[in-house]
């Protein structure tokens, strides 16, 4: 008989007795309580904020709602171990990551202290002119100055006038280009628009040798790009549903003062630059409207973070843009985003960015964070004076320049966590969420197109782990929403059903059996194809 490896637990190892090992919730409690019997609510929220998470983060909704309800039942506004557990258990994966310093900027507080220093340094600058071609821009005080950032893990920091609404103006150009590529693909969009820096002012009446606008970051390219997009709810999704408004007064003024843009529009029309059937004047209206979209520094930092995060909004987990759209956008922001300073900015700062006439600079540190700087006084080339100073200082301090050497350049700060093997990390996160029964983390993983059938070194899947731990809700979610294979075998030949039986989880056994009875193997290929479609509805 061939030798067969058996599951070690089924031979000699004693079963794990519940309650002997401290749970993750308990570990978190001890970390935050620092030796006390109870955690006052404000101590918990202060500790949370130090990690960079906000109490209003949509990913912490369940925890915060439970906290509110639970606090009403206490006399002293403090949580003992039991109450604490009740509050944190539904978001335990995110919270554990935060407190174990597993976010992209592990030492967030000291990084923020650096950001505040850079902010103060730029605040002292007094040069530049506030744009005055329309009254809505001219009214801004030259003293306004704000920086907001959001990392790819949703860590937030803001300093200065970060809640004052202002218009995106040209900062909207990369966003609408991204939407156009997301909707139509690169090839179609670039039938109408080039990819080269123009070497000319942003509103020049000029086309390239093929009679196309040079790129989507100059007005001509952005006007053509406007004719390729339709939907506006993208903006809300990019900003994780934070503030996105519209200044009708700015729109009217832009239209009234927009002779140059009308001239460009007629020229583009003459040269047949638009898709067939386009009504040029209504496209121009839409162009002016897009320039007049209002954001705050805070909400725009989430938009930038969505670009930094490959098109996934960090605070909602929603996939807003395709990776192709984001990569194209970052490339063109890098070469063409900063008016006639683009080459120098790429040289000195080495990061994709886009500025606008209202004084905004949307800056992306790919795979790390999005930043919005805002201050109305502009230099001669139209870029925010304080914003440029901040971006330059940031890259002198941290090794964020695209061509900074990450291995040998020890003189600059590297606030990032050490990178590891992404795949290993993703399996660990998946199995960890299944182990702890954190369904909301699993939902986010599924939404971000994670392979929910991934296996670890022992060929164990999330379904094995959830079945062994008796997490019925997780088992249901994996089977019904994700349509994972219900009978995967680990390296010892065990299925999730074997696990559920072994550990005496009768409710899991029932779910697996019922599911198995409905599930016929012939249908499985077609079933799997439908899984992604069904997922949306079920989440
Ligand atoms: N509304 C301005 C224009 O299209 C935008 C200017 C800008 O932010 O670059 O001319």
TrEMBL record:
On whether Transit peptide is a keyword of this UniProt record, the answer is yes
ANK repeat residue numbers: 458-480
GO terms for molecular function, please? glutaminase activity
- The lineage's top-level taxon is Eukaryota
What this protein catalyses is: L-glutamine + H2O = L-glutamate + NH4(+)
Whether Transport counts among this entry's keywords is no
- SUPFAM superfamilies registered for this protein in UniProt: Ankyrin repeat (SSF48403), beta-lactamase/transpeptidase-like (SSF56601)
Residues covered by the Glutaminase EF-hand domain: 25-106
Per the UniProt entry, the Enzyme Commission number(s) are 3.5.1.2
Q: Entry's Gene3D superfamilies? A: 1.10.238.210, Ankyrin repeat-containing domain, DD-peptidase/beta-lactamase superfamily
The listed locations are: Mitochondrion
Q: Give UniProt keywords alphabetically.
A: Acetylation, ANK repeat, Hydrolase, Mitochondrion, Repeat, Transit peptide
SMART domains, alphabetically?
ANK
UniProt main location, coarse: mitochondrion
Q: What NCBIfam families does the database record attribute to this sequence?
A: Gln_ase
Tell me its family: Belongs to the glutaminase family.
UniProt protein name:
glutaminase
Q: Which species is this record about?
A: Lates japonicus (Japanese lates)
